[in-house]
Design brief:
By secondary structure, this protein is of the alpha/beta class. It has one domain: P-loop containing nucleotide triphosphate hydrolases (Rossmann fold), CATH 3.40.50. Helices cover 43% and strands 19% of the residues. This is Putative adenylate kinase.
Length: 178
């Protein structure tokens, strides 16, 4: 089974994946798999450009794939980690990104971009709001979904997170200026 651990940068994917690996799960990053299968196209502004369609066609991995593109690999299950954009902004500020890149990611989170893409590419999709959860709580939620726990799968079904409604009077703070 291919499980995507995905979400906007800063939602906790790498931290969760690292701990899951320590607990014995088979975990790889999208970049590791892209390197293995020769699917890295280029590098732009310090970011690796991956031929995701080619990787999805070539992937032979069973386990958890971590990365904000992992949901595009046609996984059996996609677990989308989410975070309130107001909190996410603070998490991302330490990355020394340009204001444009910061806002691009906040906008993507606000508009459910990764969730919508996951719904298009994965057989099953779950979303976890990591905003006020400890790392251990997020890991427990992810493990429950992986185990097939019915309560967890019901609790984390997609559609329960709506940043636009929650932050409606602050939307402009998180959107790029046109």
């Amino acid at each position: 089974m291919l499980i995507a651990l995905t979400g906007t940068p800063g939602t906790g994917k790498s931290s969760v994946a690292e701990r899951l690996r320590e607990r014995g799960y088979k975990v790889a990053t999208v970049v590791e798999l892209a390197e293995k299968h020769g699917c890295i196209i280029d590098e732009e502004d310090g970011e690796i450009v991956i031929d995701v369609e080619s990787l999805a066609a070539r992937i032979d991995f069973e386990g958890i794939v971590e990365g904000h593109l992992s949901h595009l690999l046609k996984p059996d299950v996609a677990i989308v980690l989410r975070c309130n954009p107001a909190v996410l902004r603070e998490r991302l500020k330490g990355r020394n990104w340009s204001e444009e890149k910061l806002l691009e990611n906040l906008e993507a989170e606000m508009l459910d971009v990764i969730l919508v893409e996951a719904l298009e590419h994965a057989s099953e999709v779950y979303e976890i709001d990591t905003t006020e959860m400890s790392l251990e709580e997020v890991i427990e939620a992810v493990e429950a979904i992986i185990r097939g726990d019915r309560e967890a799968r019901k609790r984390y079904k997609p559609g329960g997170i709506d940043w636009l409604s929650e932050l409606e009077d602050r939307i402009e703070e998180f959107m790029r200026k046109v």
